[in-house]
Amino acid sequence: MSQGYSPLLRQLINALQCLPGVGMKSAQRMAFHLLHRDREGATHLAKALEQASREITHCERCRMLTEHALCSLCASDRRDGTQLCVVEMPADVIAIEQSAAYQGLYFVLMGHLSPIDGIGPGELGIELLERRLQEEDIAEVVLATSVTVEGDATAQLIASLAARNRIKASRIAYGVPMGGELEFIDSGTLSRALSGRREIEAAAAEDTL
User: Fold this and answer.
1) Any idea what the Cα angle at residue 93 is, between residues 88 and 97, rounded to 5°?
2) Please, which residues bridge with residue 107 across strands?
3) Comparing C-alpha atoms, which of 66, 50, 48 is closest to residue 58?
4) What secondary structure letter does DSSP report for 200?
5) Dihedral over alpha carbons 205, 122, 61, 177 (to 10 degrees)
6) CA gap 91, 183 in Å, rounded
């Protein structure tokens, strides 16, 4: 990095590069903007980040990001407790909610199976998910993992858990392209995908264990 940066400016630019897709040039541009044009915004951003990193944790029931023991969706008495939609990331919950096509509950894996990255069932909260399948009155598990090799493997694992607990497992498919990430799919397409979900055969799912 250039010798012309002061220590604090260099520290700020390095810190901004922790964001996905932000390289040195983008971080430099952000730092200069905040310091030159929006000092008030910089202070507000710093306070918001500090408070969020200190107070936001995972919902005890679904693992959604929240500052409370239960997120607003799990705490609501208006959701359909017989349906449980399993997604990879919190952004997927927001995308599905914006589609207005689903009124059930959620479980957020915070990723997908990826042995090469050291992500197995333990990292995805599978034990908590299975406990919910055993203890709650769930009639259908809606699998909304990404349409990728990893997403398919993750869906098959969860479908096998559902089959073991005699719960129907369906997978959203209609309108979702191969390799598609839910957070980048428009709400209309996602709404059709939820409405056109298909059941996963239990026998095939059990072979993944």
Assistant:
1) 155
2) 86
3) 66
4) P
5) -50
6) 6
Q: What is the pLDDT of residues 90-101, one digit of tens each?
A: 999 999 999 898
| Tokens coding 173 | 């498919």
- Two tokens, residue 76: 């609501």
* Superfamily of structural domain 7-55: RecR Domain 1 (1.10.8.420)
The segment(s) of the chain belonging to CATH 3.40.1360.10 are 65-206
Cβ(109)–Cβ(165) below 8 Å = no
Which structure tokens are listed for 63?
Answer: 């693992």
Q: Which residue has the tokens 């997604």?
A: 87
Token pair of 95, please?
């995308």
Q: Indicate where the chain has its CATH 1.10.8.420 domain(s).
A: 7-55
In tens, the pLDDT along 136-171 reads 999 999 999 987 889 889 999 999 999 999 999 998
CATH class of 65-206: alpha beta
Q: What is the CA radius of gyration of the chain?
A: 20
Decide: residue 151, CB within 10 A, 0-12 exposed, 13-18 middle, 19+ buried. Answer: buried
- CA atoms of 87 and 182, how far apart (whole Å): 9
CA 138, 59, 145, 206 dihedral sign is negative
